[in-house]
Write a structure and sequence with these properties.
Helix content is 42%, strand content 16%. It contains twelve helices and eight strands. Strands 1-2-3-4-5-6-7-8 form an eight-stranded parallel barrel, surrounded by five helices. The longest helix is centred in the last third of the chain and has 18 residues, at 182-199. The radius of gyration is 17 Å and the shape is globular. The mean pLDDT is 97. It binds phosphoenolpyruvate.
């Protein structure tokens, strides 16, 4: 079975102490994950070491960076390299969140560089894609996400694409309280899988975990995660509330 993942994206929220308490509360629920299930906390970088040590003794719980720089090292004040992440045993990194694309002008080609650097250091990217509202309204969302995948991922080998993690996040559903309908989510996830199958093969496409992101809450996770091609979620707002995120983890297939 494909990996089913509940990924928390804290974004730029919570103090260190609040973050530590949130992790304690969630891990304190002692949810035993099945071998194909995983919970990943994408936390602010100053909290990575603490998060790593909190999850260290837990089976299938992981820490993720929310971003990394697209160059290896050097005079880039304030940036964080994949080598730095590797040196503190961070195994996952969110790449290409729509907020980074929009506010920090990250392009598909920069994201391709980030993906390459992560893979070189054995850090699994959680690659975000998704269309803005005007594209959805124009009905061209399928072509839009296909270009995002093509320009950032399709230089990878089939071996590298196996078990890859993608998060489909329609931008109009992020932090807005609007979710895609289960039909819209399933349709897009199936589309993503079909373009991966076209570029590689169906065997590879079937191993890729495709998470849904966009106002996933405790009360809608079951419906969304229940879709055949949805393999869990990337969760912003609801991941900041222990009781809500615990429910979401429990909803994983
Ligand atoms: C996100 O941060 O990727 C996200 C989907 O946020 P929210 O769940 O708040 O919409």
């Amino acid at each position: 079975m494909r990996k089913q993942i509940a990924a928390a994206n804290w974004k730029m929220n919570l103090t260190y102490q609040q973050g530590e308490k949130l992790l304690d509360d969630i891990l304190g629920a002692e949810i035993v994950l099945k071998p194909h299930q995983q919970t990943i906390f994408a936390v602010p970088s100053p909290y990575l070491l603490m998060t790593r040590s909190e999850v260290e003794t837990e089976q299938n719980y992981e820490a993720a960076a929310q971003n990394c720089y697209h160059k290896k090292s050097g005079a880039y004040t304030g940036e964080i390299s994949v080598e730095m992440l590797r040196s503190i045993n961070v195994n996952y990194c969110v790449i290409g969140h729509s907020e980074r694309r929009e506010y920090f002008s990250e392009t598909n080609s920069m994201l391709a560089d980030k993906v390459n650097l992560c893979l070189e250091k054995n850090i699994a990217p959680i690659f975000c894609c998704g269309e803005p509202l005007n594209i959805r309204d124009a009905g061209t969302q399928n072509e839009f996400v296909a270009v995002q995948l093509k320009e950032s991922l399709f230089h990878l080998s089939a071996e590298q694409m196996k078990n890859f993690i993608i998060a489909y996040e329609p931008i109009w559903a992020i932090g807005t309280g609007k979710t895609a309908t289960t039909e819209q989510a399933q349709e897009m996830h199936a589309h993503l899988r079909s373009i991966i199958a076209g570029q590689y093969n169906s065997e590879v496409a079937e191993t890729v975990s495709i998470l849904y992101g966009g106002s996933v809450k405790a009360n809608n996770a079951k419906e969304i995660f229940g879709c055949k091609d949805v393999d869990g979620g990337l969760v912003g707002g609801a991941s900041l509330v222990a009781a809500d995120f615990i429910e979401i983890i429990k909803t994983l297939k």
